[in-house]
Design a protein that fits this description.
By secondary structure, the protein is an alpha/beta fold. The chain has eight helices and seven strands. Keywords: Kinase, Transferase.
Length: about 200
């Protein structure tokens, strides 16, 4: 299936919004699966159709390094359980998406390694897209109206990393891949998702 057909397939699963309605779409997938590129295409298509879109990248809301590195836990545990404050995001992002006029969120800044409080306005009528990894963890899954899962083999995903990054394969083995394996086994995202895109 080519990219145009994929976009059309996805658009066919998104309803026309009535006034005052919000629809929450999760775009899930493991690292380098292609979900960010797909999300950009979907957002552009929606805006071309004059649909109001609010986009959240879950990686914008990770915690400071001291909370996710050298904590005494295994590296995969740090990445899966500590990279985000899962409970805080559940209460301050997910639980407020349907009704709040604005959100107060802690956005991570890489250069300063700090979280900054930002205010995000939400229109009464909008399609809310949340894009990122591990989106179907049990704490968040029930908030979505629909979830798209972008599936891609590990070897292909890893080949998309830079040569410098690929030289750090031990970090992938201990941190990222073990966390991915845990997620796939614990949450079965391929089965839970409403739409699966093979990329």
């Amino acid at each position: 299936m080519n990219r145009l057909n994929i976009i059309q397939k996805i658009m066919g699963t998104i309803p026309t919004l009535e006034h005052g309605q919000r629809f929450i779409l999760g775009i899930d997938g493991l690292s380098r699966s292609g979900k960010t590129t797909l999300t950009e295409k979907i957002v552009q298509e929606l805006r071309d159709r004059n649909v109001s879109v609010c986009l959240f990248h879950i990686d914008d809301y990770i915690v400071e390094r001291k909370k996710r590195y050298n904590t005494g836990f295994d590296e995969w545990h740090e990445y899966y359980h500590l990279q985000w404050d899962v409970k805080w995001l559940e209460e301050n992002l997910y639980a407020k998406l349907r009704d709040a006029d604005e959100l107060q969120l802690l956005k991570y800044e890489d250069v300063s390694d700090a979280q900054k409080l930002v205010t995000i306005q939400l229109p009464d009528t909008c399609l809310i897209i949340i894009e990122g990894v591990f989106l179907q963890r049990k704490e968040w899954r029930h908030f979505y109206n629909r979830v798209i899962y972008v599936d891609c083999p590990r070897e292909k995903r890893f080949s998309r990393e830079s040569e410098e990054t690929q030289r750090k394969i031990e970090k992938f083995q201990k941190r990222y891949w073990k966390a991915e394996d845990y997620y796939v086994e614990a949450e079965n995202p391929l089965v839970q998702a409403d739409v699966v895109i093979q990329n």
